[in-house]
Design goal:
This is FAD dependent oxidoreductase domain-containing protein. InterPro entries: FAD/NAD-bd_sf (IPR036188), Geranylgeranyl_reductase (IPR050407). With about 325 residues, the protein is an alpha/beta fold. The chain has a single domain, classed as FAD/NAD(P)-binding domain. The strands form 2 sheets. Strands 3, 4, 5, 8, 9, 10, 11, 12 and 14 form a 9-stranded mixed beta sheet that branches. A hairpin with a 2-residue loop joins strand 10 and strand 11.
Length: about 325
């Protein structure tokens, strides 16, 4: 038995596995509880900036394609957005499996088919020194702590077996989100992020309008709105804490950035929460204003907008 603290991590997604890997490397006794029998996020477009290599250098071998820019199609104007950091298409599921192997090699214990519910958490508090909730959008750890729920959106994606050698992605803004088209190896991905009551109807209409037939369609919940615990023994990270980009719903870069803040301050979870607030809240406010501004001008007065932009893809502002 190691001499470090006993740590329970609920959820074997990218943030839970990354934290487990790094804490195990530091000599802590880490146990990850995963409700499924395997790891690998099922619904994710797998668009990552080169920032991912700072967290998981081994992920370079997962690159499928480089993306050079994005075309944003408003009804009367198309914008061309290039990224200040290189952008790549990868399999999120393969990234999770890679991080799982790293966590296990560092000494993490992974317990599969272990569904943790609210009623299980009190027992864990007596068995573990720290508990980290990385259990997704409908986090049981978050609900045990009686914290507020995030705003929920729906992400839907499907695949058409059509070759696509493009080096860019397409996006079509919707009232509360956007539709997308992403080139992948041997196929093309289409998807939508929207409010739950609108997503399927808008996606189906888009597919009909473009005469697109999808072979596989999946859906997932996307949480938004940072949530903080004030409990010294508990921390939230990833989707459980609502850590997704306000403009795209992507969460990997944000989750791993927050995970590094947690690791830096470990085992002081209150310091972690304070630093996350200082780091993320100003970015969220600015990003929200910029996103609303682009949507307003794009839909209402598109002729005032320049055609070309360059952005920092993970945070918009640094």
């Amino acid at each position: 038995m190691r001499e470090g603290l006993k740590i329970a991590i609920v959820g074997a997604g990218i943030s839970g596995l990354y934290i487990a890997w790094k804490l195990a490397q530091k000599g802590h006794n880490v146990t990850v509880f995963e409700k499924r029998s395997v790891v690998g996020k099922e619904v994710c477009s797998g668009l990552f900036s080169e920032r991912i290599f700072n967290f998981i250098p081994e992920s370079k071998k997962l690159i499928e394609k480089q993306i050079d820019y994005c075309l944003i199609h408003f009804p009367k104007k198309t914008l061309r957005v290039v990224f200040s950091k290189k952008f790549f298409v990868m399999s999120h599921a393969k990234l999770d499996k890679l991080t799982l192997d790293l966590a296990i090699s560092a000494g993490t214990q992974i317990l599969f088919n272990k569904q943790i519910t609210i009623s299980d958490v009190p027992k864990m508090t007596s068995e573990f020194d720290r508990i980290i909730g990385c259990d997704g959008a409908v986090s049981q750890v978050r609900r045990f702590l009686k914290l507020r729920e995030p705003r929920f959106y729906v992400g839907m994606q499907g695949f058409a077996y059509q070759k696509n050698n493009d080096n860019y992605v397409d996006a079509w803004p919707t009232p509360n989100g956007f539709l997308w088209k992403i080139p992948r190896n041997g196929e093309t991905e289409y998807g939508i992020m929207e409010k739950p009551e609108n997503a399927k109807k808008m996606f189906d209409q888009f597919l009909r309008n473009h005469n697109i037939k999808l072979e596989i369609t999946k859906a997932a919940v996307i949480p938004q709105g940072l949530i903080f615990s004030t409990n010294k023994k508990f921390a939230l990270c990833g989707d459980a804490a609502g850590m997704t980009k306000p403009w795209s719903g992507g969460g990997v870069a944000w989750s791993l950035t927050a995970a590094d803040i947690l690791l830096k301050n470990f085992p002081n979870f209150l310091k972690y929460q304070e630093e996350v607030k200082r780091s993320f809240l100003p970015r969220i406010i600015v990003a929200d204003i910029l996103t609303k501004g682009v949507y307003f001008f794009g839909f209402k007065i598109p002729w005032l907008m320049p055609k070309n932009y360059k952005i920092e893809s993970d945070f918009l502002v640094t």
